[in-house]
């Protein structure tokens, strides 16, 4: 196994399969756009729900949960059609179509400030983005990547993403304060339009795949050899749902400032870049479960700490810790996912598509549980405790069925 020095690690095309290199360029552009808005969209939904239906934290949280429930329901409906589209028309068409839906999402979110029906349209369009982009993304990595260097390829992608997040959230917070959400959404939209261009020069079809069908997906999900993977995906995405949709609102309630949230997020990603680089090297060098177990335990305790947070300095300390140490959770998990998809004697596209279906059901169950928790005063302890449990369940990725 070759360990690349840092200058080769970052973006030298000669060390990178062409499909993966196109992903790197796409990430650099697409994430620049998303880094402006991602941390603020849940807060926007929270505040708009309160403005339409009543100034109450419970109403705001239910509004956020309802939006992302519709988003994921649309994602589930589009999942198998997206996989079939990728097989017949290739990655390029899928990426460009996902960009079209992403542009619609931003347009509808902006319009929703004047008519709440656009929130539903935005959620449906956002749900369509997920399978058309992420199935293509993961299948390119799993099918075109170098299996012994998955850790470095994943961490390279994460570093490129994090570089955008070093600037984007801070800039996004400033834009909101001085110009408002409409200018923020338009700025992100214009950058999204450019992000599909790298795929004009990339391979268009996945290798060694056949069309995905509903019976094949069902057979995959019922296969006992996939049980631990399914549990691990369940845990990982509880972590991501809470971290992506509810934690930003918690940040806003404590920080009470878009600029503070933006600049804290930017600083956290700056520290995360360094950790991600070393996590990728460690993930390829040491193949055992210890790295994922370490990352899972660390993030478990950080989530528990967040449940007790009441001051901004506590929030900042734990956020910086999560971004820097969380790489030792996410990188080995994703690396193992791609290795499993290649090591098993099965269709890579089917593997990734089945994974997305599992994720959809994780969303539905998580939102159901969170919905039960929201009315209580201990809501944040319960929600963050759920994310902590997800960290521990992720360890199942390293356990194999007999």
From TrEMBL:
The keyword Transmembrane helix applies. The chain crosses the membrane at residues 21-46, 52-70, 91-111, 117-136, 157-178, 184-202, 238-255, 261-278, 290-306, 352-374. It comes from candidate division WWE3 bacterium RIFOXYC1_FULL_39_7. Keywords: Membrane, Transmembrane, Transmembrane helix. InterPro entries: MFS_trans_sf, Sugar_transport-like. Coiled coil: none annotated. The keyword Zinc-finger does not apply. SUPFAM superfamilies: MFS general substrate transporter (SSF103473). This is Major facilitator superfamily (MFS) profile domain-containing protein. The lineage of its organism: Bacteria, Katanobacteria.
